[in-house]
Specification:
alpha/beta; TIM Barrel; 306 residues; 12 helices; two-stranded antiparallel ribbon; single chain
């Protein structure tokens, strides 16, 4: 199962289409039970997601799921990442997690203690407190620079029907050469893909052409918007195929996980069903590529002015 369950809604009121607000601990318990039943084995966590890690720790989530956590943005005077991972271990009520990422790429690019931070991350891996190390990035330039300077295993990156920068041939080749797996996040642009036109903020008016094209393509293909949104990463399209290695065996796909956020079990079931349908959707690479957009004011939610 490539789908991983995001947990930001467990600790924050997150997403422009989220009308429910923060998920309650009782609902989180139901979601974890449903996720396990559906074959989902990974939770994407972070210390910056409010009290989400404490909620997961109280439910002993580490017993049933592989956990991804993130070191929050570091101030210029900080010298160690250890207190942050210890806090996550305490909140999650575990002594080991599968994956640990820097939440802010600049902590490996610009921070005065960046080399020491990465050495500490490597030590955590050597101590087997984490299995996989990496970083969360916003653009391909950050990933390219970090991959050339550090030996990372994983990068969490935004990929969706409009933001296709990370499925370029150059980035795929970089990841294959450096043995880096990608975890795709922001698959639904915080739910923007599913908001009805009448309910859209005026901010998105300049981007209405692409939103309309997305809706029209879903109608043309006789599928839901959710299914079309997932088709970009669900199918064995050229950028997502297994590649032959030198000894004629196959290597794993570069894109390893698709992180999705939900507020209730109904949404989770809908996403899993749509993902299965997306695998068989009759859509071409050219059709999907036609929806790509490079306008950062559209594809980067941190720049939205709402």
């Amino acid at each position: 199962m490539k789908l991983a369950l995001g947990t930001v809604q467990f600790g924050l009121d997150y997403g422009i289409s989220n009308q429910q607000g923060q998920v309650t601990p009782a609902q989180v318990k139901e979601l974890l039970h449903q996720a396990k039943a559906l074959g989902i084995d990974t939770l994407d966590c972070a210390g910056a997601y409010g009290n989400s890690e404490a909620v997961l720790g109280a439910l002993a989530a580490s017993k049933d799921f592989n956990l991804i956590s993130k070191i929050p943005a570091l101030t210029s005077d900080q010298e160690s990442i250890i207190p942050f991972i210890e806090q996550s271990f305490s909140d999650l009520q575990c002594s080991h997690i599968n994956t640990l990422l820097f939440h802010q790429a600049d902590d490996l690019l610009k921070h005065p203690n960046k080399a020491a931070f990465f050495s500490q991350l490597l030590l955590l891996k050597e101590q087997k407190k984490v299995n996989v190390i990496g970083v969360s990035v916003y653009n391909p330039e950050q990933l390219t620079t970090i991959a050339q300077q550090y030996s990372i295993d994983t990068a969490q990156v935004p990929i969706n029907i409009f933001d296709q920068r990370f499925i370029s041939e150059d980035i795929m080749a970089l990841c294959q050469n450096k043995h880096i797996k990608l975890h795709a996040r922001s698959l639904f642009l915080q739910g923007l893909l599913f908001i009805e036109q009448a309910e859209l903020s005026p901010y998105f008016k300049p981007y209405q052409d692409k939103l309309n094209a997305f809706s029209a393509m879903a109608q043309y293909l006789s599928c839901s918007k959710l299914t079309l949104a997932l088709a970009l990463l669900a199918q064995d399209l050229p950028y997502n195929k297994r590649n032959k290695t030198t000894n004629n065996t196959t290597s794993d796909n570069v894109i390893e996980k698709l992180v999705v956020g939900v507020c209730n079990t109904q949404q989770l079931v809908e996403i899993v069903n749509a993902y299965q349908q997306a695998k068989n959707l009759k859509v071409t690479t050219e059709e999907l590529s036609s929806l790509a957009d490079t306008r950062l004011g559209f594809i980067n939610p941190s720049l939205w002015q709402l």
